[in-house]
Amino acid sequence: MDEVYMRQALEMASRAYQMGEIPIGAIVVAKGEIIAEAHNEKELRQDATAHAELLALQRAAAHLGHWRLNEATLYCTLEPCVMCAGAMVNTRLGRLVFGSWDVKAGAAGSIFDLLRSKALNHQVIVEPGVLEAECSELLKKFFITMRKNAPASLSGQSTINKTGSF
């Protein structure tokens, strides 16, 4: 079922792409039901914290009527950042499944491993690399398009490196 749910997260990422947002999507599943979905809304809201994962966690908690998500799984298309990983620990998320690794800012095993840190009061089960190629391809396409359309003064700036990682 992980691939089925990740395809739903990819659909959310595609919606973000169409809106000019960095194409990251997230869904939360509990007891076999999608209870929340979101995509990045940083540009729409002009809010640096409007990451897909945070929005999905907030919506899941609202749906359930409580903040503890210990029986839920969050599916997201990119390895979460420190901010999002911290929120996953604080919501007591049961499991995280993600697509692409984020070798510049990831906090679920690439740069940091916040979700499995024994120093914290909660650990999250992490399943990386589900539909990794598809998740990575959408992000690459977005940043290539963004670079092509960027003003000359910004064209050298990007969050994608030469290997195609983010």
Give the topology, please.
Layout: H1 2-18, E1 25-30, E2 33-39, H2 42-45, H3 52-64, E3 72-78, H4 82-90, E4 95-100, E5 125-127, H5 132-149
Parallel strand pairs: 3-4, 4-5
Antiparallel strand pairs: 1-2, 1-3
Helix pairs in contact: 1-5
Descriptive report:
By secondary structure, this protein is an alpha/beta fold. The radius of gyration is 15 Å and the shape is globular. A 5-stranded mixed beta sheet has the order 2-1-3-4-5. Helix content is 37%, strand content 17%. The protein starts with a helix and ends in a 17-residue tail after the last helix. Strand 1 and strand 2 form a beta hairpin. It has 5 helices and 5 strands. Residues 153-166 have low confidence and may be disordered.
Brief summary of the model shown:
By secondary structure, this protein is an alpha/beta fold. The chain is 37% helix and 17% strand. It is globular and about 45 Å long.
Biggest beta-sheet profile: 5 strands, mixed
Q: What Rg is obtained from the alpha carbons, in whole angstroms? A: 15 Å
Beta-strand portion reads 15-25%
**Segments where pLDDT lies below 50 for 5+ residues?**
153-166
Q: Care to count the β-strands?
A: 5
Features:
alpha/beta; 166 residues; five-stranded mixed sheet; 37% helix; single chain; disordered C terminus; globular
